[in-house]
Specification:
Order of helices and strands: EHEHEHEHHE
Structural class: alpha/beta
CATH class: Alpha Beta
Helix content: 25-40%
CATH topology: Rossmann fold
Distance between the termini: 29 Å
Oligomer: single chain
Strand order of the largest sheet: 2-1-3-4-5
Radius of gyration: 13 Å
Number of strands: 5
Strand content: 15-25%
Largest sheet: 5 strands, parallel
Length: 110
């Protein structure tokens, strides 16, 4: 699975992903500061399957149904809150890739 992480996604979260997953960051690829539309277009063009972000508004700002890349929107950029949900996050990413859902919204605050 080829994953692109947006700028707000905590790096410690990415380090917990399985080794078999290829994970890059927007910043690491030099795409920092680009609009979501530009990043998503670049991500699709570079073969990314999933875009992980903490921008819950992306579903309203971008027409994600027309994208080949799937968007996984976390509800928080807080590593301590995400850390307790690691199992669910990883499971959701597997499901997102296999079921071709449009958006997964993990609501940590509940």
């Amino acid at each position: 699975m080829k994953i692109l992480a947006d700028e707000g996604v905590p790096v410690p979260l990415l380090r917990t992903f399985p080794n078999a997953w290829s994970v890059d960051t927007v910043k690491g690829l030099g795409w920092g500061g680009k609009s979501d539309a530009e990043v998503l277009k670049l991500a699709e063009g570079n073969g990314f399957e999933i875009f992980v972000t903490t921008d819950k508004n992306i579903v309203y700002q971008q027409n994600t149904k027309k994208l080949k890349i799937k968007v996984y929107a976390l509800s928080t950029p807080s590593w301590p809150k995400l850390k307790v949900q690691l199992k669910e996050i990883i499971q959701n990413l597997w499901e997102l890739c296999s079921e071709r859902k449009d958006i997964v919204d993990l609501d940590i605050d509940q």
